Amino acid sequence: MGLFNNLQLPFAQHALLACTIVAVTCGLIGPFVIMRGMSFAVHGMSELAFTGAAAGLLVAGNAPAGALCGALVVALLIGTLGDRESDRDSSIGVILAGGLGLGVLLLSFYHGFATAATNILFGDLFGVSNSQLILLLVIGITVIIAIVAIYRPLFFASVDTEVAAARGVPERILSIAFLVVLAFTVTGAAQVVGTLLVLSLAIAPAAAARRFSSSPLAIAGLSILIALVAADGGLIASLQFPSIKPTVFVTGISFFVYIVSRIIGPAIKNRQNRALQLEEVVN
Amino acid sequence: MLRNQRAWRAGTDGGPHGDEVVRLDNATLSFGRHRLWDSLTFSLKKGEFLAVLGPNGAGKTTLLKVLLGLQPLSSGKVEVLNRAPRRGSSKIGYIPQQRKFDSQSPVRGRDLVRLGIDGHRPGVPLPAVTTRSRVDAAIRSVGAETYANAPLGKLSGGEQQRLRIAQAVAGDPAILLCDEPLLSLDPASQDAVASLIDARRVAAGTAVVFVTHEINPVLPYVDSVVYLVDGQWAVGTPEQVFTSERLSELYGIPVVAARLGDRIEVVTSHGGALMDLMDEEKCRLLSAMENEGHRGPV
Fold first, then answer.
1. d(CA B73, CA B59)
2. What is the DSSP letter of B273?
3. Is A217 in the B-facing interface, judged by CB distances under 8 Å?
């Protein structure tokens, strides 16, 4: 069949691998992003990844490396300027606007391949080169190791800040570590769906997962699963319909799953709770 | 300055430092020019129930932060379990000021309780049989079996507070620090929560420091009282502290304290409730300063 043949092609396999790595990392960090109220920080980071990518393109012809630098700079700026929760939104807004303006300026100096700019903004899944794939792999593995290492204390500090502090959980170090992990994840996701649409993989799957379950581990698993369905499913769909960018399908699927979760999630959650309570009573 | 250095309980004398789990010696804490408390001196023994009272902004929560090792003193000495307080001690159980969990919070009661056991350790909280049985035991000890698997955000304030107690005792602490655990609970839940905390004290000899606005719900359990008002303080048994003379001295205006059956009532001479004594603006300012102070050493 056409799809099967398409998946034999190296560019499609590269893209599938890239999607899978990005989906796992995004699905993993998503629940933390929501718990810590950092959706806007993720958006700010991805916008500045755009500026970084434009700079990278201009200086070295390497957008992903530039994007990573951009996102890391924002992570450090948010860590230092937006320390207090009340300041955070406004400082991210300011950094975002300023950085985006700089990105537009940088792009106006760039006279290379015309679609490079839109590729940064909306993703360029089929253009993933070997070196970019290796970068994505390194990013993915780093993110997974880091999150697994800090998972429990980060969760503690995110849902139960006071008691976590009393138990000696180093919130400050964890929050900076998480910002850096976020910067890596955002850079990877920007490769797949573009800097404008990172939230469709970094937030939507976790937001949907929260509607289906209250168990932290189940939410993490579901969030990764939904991100995988959206990213890989979106890629496969665009192989079938080559005139439409994969980004459209990826964002479309994750949005659709979120809508479904809002409609049927509460009923599922209620049934789980009733079943669990019954089990507890029987025990 | 009011002081009471007398041993609080006859018959528990194990030398000067015998059973003591908490000891404050001339502890002073100031934020800028404001002195929260001056030369505060008291001690707490194993299995004792200490109530910390006083108006908003008097430094009750800050006292707990000092014991948790999160807030250094300006001067004086503090010892917890015979050493300087240390952040993250597993010997201290902490029940923070009641803040209801968001209804979409991705945690169940069981998860909250488990965090009290191993939440500070790195890694992923994989299911483990021994941890599970400790969590179960803690949940049973507060009678929360029927709702421990439900989302925390869907539970009532009283149910959440029971799970908070389970979380605090799950780590088998020697000291339990409770910050206004009765706030915004209905009277029945207040009684239930207070008696659960006391049950832990009786069963395990855990010393309890209980910050509260209201003495009456805990009066049956209280061994001693630290009363903080605007830099002044009084320490002693409820009978020693809740006298018209002492409280008038503390507040600097005439106050009448009377024991009515199993309750203590305190009113100003013109009949107002004590909480109105500090005007609201001042309270707000002081608690703002207190919060500032929590961000780092002064």
1. 12
2. B
3. yes
B151 and B83 in a single domain? The answer is no
Rounded CA separation A5/B50 (Å): 75
Q: For A152, which of B70, B97, B123 is closest by C-beta distance? A: B123
The whole-number average pLDDT for the span A90-103 is 88
| CB distance A24 to A137 below 8 Å | no
Query: CA–CA separation, B58 vs A248, rounded Å?
Result: 58
| Predicted confidence (pLDDT) per residue in A73-88, tens digit | 888 888 887 666 677 7
Q: In terms of domains, do B110 and B159 share one?
A: yes
Count the domains in chain A: 1
Report the CATH number at residue A61: 1.10.3470.10
Q: Which of A151, A156, A211 to mutate to test the interface with B (most CBs of B within 10 A)?
A: A156
B265-287 tens-digit pLDDT: 888 766 555 544 444 444 454 45
Structure token pair of residue A258: 């979120």
Domain encompassing residue A56: 2-282
Total number of domains in chain B: 2
CA distances from residue A194 to A13, A96, A123, B71 in whole angstroms, order as listed: 19, 16, 4, 45
> Does any CB of chain A come closer than 8 Å to the CB of residue B226?
no
Angstrom distance (rounded) from CA B109 to CA B224: 32
Under 8 Å between Cβ of B243 and B250: no
Instruction: Please state, in angstroms and rounded to a whole number, the distance separating the CA atoms of residues B96 and B94.
Output: 6
Cα of first residue to Cα of last residue in chain B, in angstroms, is: 25
Closest C-alpha among A111, A130, A128, A131 to residue A119? A128
Whether A194 contacts A120, CB under 8 Å: yes
Give the bridge partners for B79, in sequence order.
B23
Distance (Å) of CA A190 to CA A45, A185, A201, B1, B122? 10, 9, 10, 65, 29
This model of the complex carries an ipTM of: 0.83
Q: What is the pLDDT of residue B12?
A: 40
Domain that holds residue B213: 20-91+173-294
Across A170-175, average pLDDT = 90
Instruction: Looking at the structure, tell me whether residues B128 and B194 fall in a common domain.
Output: no
Say which residue the tokens 């070196």 belong to: A131
Q: Give the pLDDT confidence of B174-215 residue by residue, as tens digits.
A: 999 999 998 888 888 899 999 999 999 999 999 999 999 889
In this predicted structure, the answer to whether residue B225 has a pLDDT above a threshold of 80 is yes
The answer to whether the CB of B289 falls within 8 A of the CB of B33 is no
B113 plus B151 within the same structural domain: yes
Residue B56 domain-assigned (yes or no): yes
With contact defined as beta carbons under 8 Å apart, do B253 and B268 qualify?
yes
**B70 at the A interface (CB within 8 A)?**
yes
Give this prediction's pTM. 0.85
Q: Is the CB of A273 less than 8 angstroms away from the CB of B151?
A: yes
Q: Which of B225, B161, B224 is nearest to B196 (CA)?
A: B161
Amino acid at A92: I
Query: Across the interface, do A217 and B88 touch by the CB < 8 Å criterion?
Result: no
Rg (CA), chain B: 19
